[in-house]
Design brief:
Length: about 210
């Protein structure tokens, strides 16, 4: 697909791509999105604000704790752990490259550490066996953050059911230097996929 010559044409193609993705199976979203971007690379950035990829989980070897890997903590092909603040896997070209990877300001990093401990306690209580992460980044007039929960149905709990719950809560905080008030804007997305086997081997209920 050729790159559009005008902003109006780009908007039209973006709307068409979103309409197509909405009609395809949600559990195949990531595969379908990658295929679409391969056909029309110029749509990658225009689709990003409207499409939430399924969350993945990685292990932080330094802290031996799992964390959510997604677009909000990605820099190139590596992801930043909220527990140690380091990228996993490490940068290919050593410390010099690692120092150039994105990190929040010192103030936000301290706030991020607190948010992760509190959010981890919350998800442990309400989402047994889940993995949660919080990532913050600076804005011109405040900051923004992503609060993420990834929960998979345990195979030990049920052999005939498979399920995944992905919750993405993005908050934008606008701070005013001349006021004690802050303005908050929250956007939440929940992706649920559930498969339940029927009485016979060829019967499966697939809900997304």
């Amino acid at each position: 697909m050729e790159s559009p010559e005008s902003p109006e044409e780009c908007q039209r193609q973006t709307a068409a791509a979103l309409g197509l993705l909405q009609r395809l199976p949600p559990q195949d979203l990531e595969t379908d999105l990658d295929a679409l971007i391969k056909i029309a690379p110029h749509l990658e950035h225009s689709l990003a604000p409207y499409v939430t990829r399924p969350l993945k989980v990685k292990l932080d070897p330094e802290q031996n704790r799992y964390f959510v890997a997604c677009d909000y903590n990605c820099d190139g092909s590596t992801h930043r752990s909220p527990w140690s603040g380091r990228y996993c896997p490490s940068a290919e070209h050593g410390e010099a490259e690692d120092e150039r990877l994105f990190r929040p300001s010192e103030r936000l990093r301290r706030l991020e550490e607190t948010f992760n401990e509190v959010f981890d306690a919350y998800t442990t209580s309400y989402y047994e066996g889940s993995v949660s992460s919080v990532y913050l980044w600076d804005l011109d007039e405040g900051f923004a953050g992503a609060f993420l929960v990834h929960k998979e149905l345990s195979k030990a709990t049920s052999s005939d059911r498979k399920g995944v719950w992905n919750a993405v809560h993005v908050i934008e905080v606008k701070e005013s230097a001349n006021s004690h008030f802050s303005e908050y804007k929250l956007s939440s997305t929940v992706l649920v996929h559930l498969e339940v086997a029927g009485q016979s081997a060829d019967q499966t209920l697939d809900c997304s």
